[in-house]
Amino acid sequence: MPQQLHEFTIEAADAAAGREMAAALRPRFEVATDGARSVRRVWLDTFDWRLYRAGSTLEYTSGPGTHELAFAASDGERTACAVPRMSWPAAAGSVPGALVRDLVEPVAGIRALLPVAACASAQRTLRVLDGEDKTVARITVDLASVRGPAGIALPARLTVTPVRGYGGQADRVERLLAGLPSVTAADRSSFQLALAAAGRRAGDYSSQVDVALTPAMPARAAVAAVLLRLLDIIEANVDGAVRDIDTEFLHDLRIAVRRTRAALKLAGDALPGDLAPRYALEFRWLGQLTTPLRDLDVHLLGFADAAAGLVTASPPDLAPMHESLTRYRAAERRRLARGLRSARFTRLTSQCWCALGKLSARGAHQAGAAPSRRAAAGRGGVAQTPVGDLATARIERAYRRLARTGAAITAASPEEDLHTVRKRGKELRYLLEFFAALHEPATHRSAVRELKALQDCLGEIQDGHVQREAIRSLAARMVAERATPAATLLAMGELAAQLDAAASEARDDFGRRFARFTSDRNASRIASLAKAAAA
Amino acid sequence: MRIYATYNVKGGVGKTSAAVNLAYLASREGRSTLLWDLDPQAAATFLFRIRPRVKGGGKALVRGAMPLDAAIKGTDFDHLDLLPADLTYRRMDLLLDAAKKPTRQIARLLAPLAGEYDTVFLDCPPSISLVTENVLHAADMLIVPLIPTTLCTRTLDQLTGFVDSFDGPQPAILAFFSMVDRRKRLHRDITQNLPAERKDLATAVVPALSLVEQMAVRRAPLPVYAPRSRAAQCYRELWQEISALRPGG
Fold this sequence. Notes:
The structure holds two protein chains of two kinds. By secondary structure, chain A is α+β, with helices and mostly antiparallel strands. Chain A has helices spanning 15-25, 50-53, 98-108, 167-178, 190-197, 219-243, 247-267, 275-301, 303-308, 319-340, 343-366, 373-379, 387-407, 415-434, 441-481, 486-517, 520-534; strands at residues 3-4, 7-10, 30-45, 57-63, 66-72, 77-82, 90-91, 112-129, 135-146, 152-153, 157-162, 183-185.
């Protein structure tokens, strides 16, 4: 049952404070003291802070013989339930206690729940009794400390928890306590304090590029800053990908690698010497390292829906396919972990940090005195060009290339040509993302929305073909390895046919999508973005 | 969500004591537990120091004007809630009879609570009525306290025969000897011999002790005020037997 909990700070958490509270509650209520207990409080969120961004929190409290999971929604409503002892990380869907799981799962989605802050608490509970000696509320006095070398102690906290069905009495208790001079409403929650004490900041990870650029900034420094940000995302996801905490660590890592490769290709000429071609090769290797596992993840993540969509075959027919995918995934996971722990990867990231860090710092230093366009052209070419100009030129070129390759598509065009259009679309998308800070936000959002609609269509076409081919290869591999039931192969055939049909449907829609994307309205939108970047 | 009902057509056999103590023991295991006091005498409600009143009465519950979860009260114990009795429950038969599918109303009312509670106990009034029939349809298991008398098996056989006549899912039945007085030869003989003859009898036996009767004075489950007593141990053994069985199986 949802509850609203408010936190208060209290000057002291000793017996005298207990007596003071009891006196404040009389004559309407009596107070009985429950024993003290030590608990560990752990706050959980996904790696990308989905709960925090939704304004909610999830707390796991573990004490002697009791473990509780409590979800607080954005409106402060708290829902708690008893759970068995848990270890984290855990998938949101695997959380016991349907009451809380049903609230957490839609927010966390496929991401695992990880501890983001924790504290050890000495708690003392006072039971507030009515005239029948029935407990109507509990006052918890919490003395928490955050683990670590310093072992920071947090200010004493006081919360009033209503007993279900006695909300009115609990409100009265809260009002009476709030009137005490030693009690004040807390301006920051225990979660916020524990987080700060642990040196963390809520929302400190995002997979977005989000680099602060100004149009006058030298292109070299700007591109280095974008690449550093992408490197940051890659490194942030390595541990989760290696430990296989959830599939999205690898996904975010892989997208950051793709963006890095795109940045090197599309704006790498702003970097000195052979930096761009040298790193392009290394990031190509890194991208290839991630492909097989991600492909298997895509199959497995969509498996339940695909199985549910079977018409002729039945979902259990696909069990051997699932078993094979899981087995292959385990092998690919080991291979990826080896790659991400390799000297080659460590060397790549450390050298990148070193090389790009210098450029970015130098660029930031120069940002205040941006070169004129003429001076830039005379001295260092692209490197010293203001990034606004570079963004304009590259976005316009990417749009022209996408428009040209897309316009050449006919009903007879081979799949490879559509794949090329998709690649051009991705290049434009990445450029828009890199230079987003230079654009007017509303126009930027509209342009990205139109492009995304086109990309979704192209994605369905290509993914359909790729997955169809992957299912064929998988079937061949399964047959070669062990006896595979005919029903499984037939079901896989049906899956492949469905993917083909979906791809064909998407292809039929391509013309409409492309016409919309290249409409005068959208073309002028892209042009105005380019203009704004150069301003 | 597992639904247990303590039931016997006779009164004063230990149904409420069993419901209160077993619900308490279930909640101690961390199971989110609800006890619905269906008996207008409100003994279980009294034991938990809760006012025997539901806003709008049984009528509001059956007709949906008052959702069940809005009428639930927390007890003094973690993970244990109570749906209080109300004097209007004495007319519950009439209310149920007026509804569609009159024998399935309690099951329907409980269904939305499945996400919230692991275990539900229904403390039934001593009667054969539409309320009883609802309870028998809603429950996964009937827990039947029996005072060891010559006619006690007849009661159990009648109940088993009635349940067997149901179409569809039928609750499992587990009887246990309650209020056993070892000083009486008949009690000793029956509790010693009958379990060998019947599979629907628990091996745990609850003795007739003043400590059990003190629940009404202490207004608390027995394991709270006498956790080491033999009576508390007997309820623990009974709960272990019950929770080890698969309801409906």
